[in-house]
Amino acid sequence: MTKIGIINVDHSPSGLHQFLQRILSQLSSYEVVGIEWNDHEGKMHTKDLHEYASSYPVLQTVSSDVLERLIGDLHLFSRIIVIGGINVFKELKKVNNQIEFLFVPASIHNNITWTELSLGYDTALNSIIESTLKIKDTIESLKYSIPRLFGVQIPGEAPSKMLKDLSIAVDGFYLESQSNQNQFNRDNSCSIQQSLKNNFSNGLTYSFLLFDERIYAANIPEYSLPELDVDWKVIQIDEALCMGQNPSALDRIIAKTFANQAVEWVHSHAKSEVLYIDRREVKRKSYSRV
């Protein structure tokens, strides 16, 4: 029986359950194996995912740090499906000549350049927006002597596009990080400061400022917005909140269409490929074209 391995690296995106269920239902004649890592024993651990087909397929994450150590054992599989982010793909490119893989883009930040959307992004976006709007409901019931500015810190390294989308959704602003130096973009911060001044002078009593973990939240009032007299509070969004078990409708669709393409790849004689979304259509292409 042909053996198919599935690895989920670093994070469990929302929609993973739906992806696995569709895979298992369409590959019933294959041996579909979950590939995990046993830290205690320092070696690969596998399990038959068909045993979970009628319930909730559980696939523990593998750290990208140990991915290279797994490579030597992956020759046991005819085909390997790898779910992960951009850093995972970079590691896979180093070992492409040793295994045949299909890369499934999954990221709460949607920072994989060759695909319009990644699995898990839409749910993460919705979760962050919902959490922020709950704060908004509380704010409107309280009165303060000075305007209130709520910093909403996004986990990880969020691209500008994500921060911009979030700020539009909650009627706020976003602060761009400058490279990986735990600094903010000064031109961006000056523009934000002036816009907030205008809003507060026109009677607005609160606002939101979104940024990611590369920026030290405590420094923002003094170094980024020194001319504003505001009550500054920070809300940190937990990464787990962005990867819940209840995917959005869009992530459910993406999960199942990704799975359909993965099944086609398993049946084909194609070499290593990546999944991607182009104009809302799921497609495959050779990893070498990325």
UniProtKB/TrEMBL annotation:
Gene3D superfamilies (UniProt xref): 3.40.50.450, Phosphofructokinase domain
Pfam family membership, one: PFK
UniProt signal peptide: none
Source taxonomy: Bacteria, Bacillati, Bacillota, Bacilli, Bacillales
GO molecular function annotations of the record: 6-phosphofructokinase activity; metal ion binding
Domain Phosphofructokinase: from-to ranges: 77-266
Protein name: Phosphofructokinase domain-containing protein
Keywords (A to Z) from UniProt: Kinase, Magnesium, Metal-binding, Transferase
